[in-house]
C-alpha cells in the first residue's frame, strides 16, 4: 500500500482535527448559600468532590467576606459582585458552568440574567434553590447573627430597611402579602420577571439560552418552604396550599423567564433526590451533577490547550488563591 507523502499526512491530520468535534471540559464556579463561605468544611468538601469526580477546573466564588455578607448584603449587590469577578477570570472567557447551593442559586441566576458583558454560562446545576421564593426565613438557629436577623425581620420584611439589610428578604414571598411583595421586594420579582411594567425580554433571552438547567429538589428539605420551590413550584397567590407544580404557575405558563421554553426544548431536568437541604450523596452527585460538568463537545480551532488544574480555588476580593 502506497504511503501518503508527509505533506498530505499533515494536511489530513489538520483536516480531521478541524472537522470532527473534540471533547473539551469547561470550568465551573460554585456559589455557596447563606451563612456559609468558601472555606467552610461543607462547601470545601462539595467543591473538591466535584473537581475530583469530574476532572475539571473548579472555583468557589466568594461574595465579600462570605458568611456575614451572605446574610446582610442585598442579593442584587451580591449578584453584581459575582458578575464583576467572573468577567475578570480569564479561565471562564470561553464559557463556564454554575453550581448553586441554596441561596447561591439566586445569585447565580442574577449573573445569568443581569450580568452585561460576562462570559456565557452553559449549564446551570441547582441544589436546593429557592427559585420561586420561600414562605419562611431559612432555618438559622440561636447564633448572634441569627438574633440580629430575627430583630430585623420583626421590623417588617417588606420595608425598605429590611430589604436593604437582610439578604433573604429579597426572596421571602408570603402568599398572603403578594401586593407588598411585588411592590417592595427588591430582588426576586425582578429575577423572575414578575412585574408587568418592568418585564425584561433580555432576562428571558439570557436564561433560556442555557444548554441545560438541572433542578435538584431534596425530599426531606425542611429549610425551603415549600421544597418544590427548588423546581419553581410554589403556593398560589393568597393561600398556603396547595403547592403548585412548576407547570401550573404563571411564571411557567406565561414563560416570564423562559422556563417553559427551556423545558419544551428538553433542557430542564427535574431531579428528586433523597436527603435534607443540599444533602446530596456521592452517588447522586456523580449521577445528576457531574455529567453536566464533564466533556462539552466543541469543534476546536486551536491546538493550544491549558492543562486542567484539579484543585479547589477560591475567588475572593483580592483574586485567586489555592485553598489549603
Automatic annotation (TrEMBL):
GO terms for molecular function: thiolester hydrolase activity. Keywords: Hydrolase, Signal. Residues 1-25 form the signal peptide. Pfam families: Palm_thioest (PF02089). This is Palmitoyl-protein thioesterase 1-like.
